[in-house]
Structure formats: structure tokens, C-alpha cells
Sequence to fold (171 residues):
Amino acid sequence: MTLEAREVEWGHPEAFELRRAMWEHYRPMFPEASAEAEATYGGFAGVDAFVGRRAVATVLVSEDGRPLGVGSLRTAPRLGPEVGEVSKVFVVPEARGRGVARLVMAELEAIARRQGFDRLVLDTNQGNLAAVALYENLGFEHIDPTRPDGRVSMAKSIRPATSAGSAERAG
Fold:
């Protein structure tokens, strides 16, 4: 049983269904925010379409053809063209703790580097301790105090490291 990661379009049916499962999983935890989003965008499909407008890559992780995890990379215009936003990372509950999210994140980071981003940002919920720990383990740092809505903002530089020797040779 091997995990397989592949890049798919935002609207890929399996990616869409995993994001729907994410919505249903977190909806009871955030009833006010969910109700506001539903009222604004007309339900999950409208919210998903709105979020997907800036998606530049989506990674789907499967095992034996069964989708287990998803995550996307979006542009972050308010932060500049060199910043990518990691969004909608979700792993089905029965596959958690098996490296699925780590694989999604590794693939998204590789894609971000290829597309010329030099920094990644993300938001997660402070109550999702496993996600916060994973992101910290992957080198993300907290960039803002936890907001009143419970979201934690994190960032990671993915700029290629330059060695002192190469900088001396260049100058």
C-alpha cells in the first residue's frame, strides 16, 4: 500500500469531494462562520468556487485509487507575487497520522518553488493541534498573534539558500 500524490485541477471530482468532507467535518465546530459563508456564497459549492478562483495547483493523495488527502496552492495578491498561500489541506480521519498531510505539503512546496514563489503562508485553527504541530515541524513559523476567531497565521521561506562561497564568487 503506497501513497500516490498527483497534481490535479481545482475542480477535479475527488478533490472537490474531499473539500466537501472538510467542510462537513469543520462546519459544526464553526457554526457562525459556516452560516455566514453559506449566506454569502449560497452553500458549499459557492464557497468552494470562490476559494478556488486563485488556485494555481491542487495536490491529491490516494492509496490504491482511494482519495485520502488534498491541498491547494493559491496566489496571495495582498502579500505580493512571490508569496503563495497553502489552502484547504484535508486528510480523511481514518488516514491521519500516516504521512498523507506531510506528502501533500511536500508536493505543494515543490510546486511553489517551480512556480517561482519564495514564501508560503497559511492559516489554520488553533484548536487543530496536529496541524499546527505538523506545520511547525515543516518549518512554518507563527507570523501573527492568534486572531480572535481562533485562526493562526504561519509562514515559511522557500527561497533557495545561497552559500557564503557562491556569494563571494558572484561579487
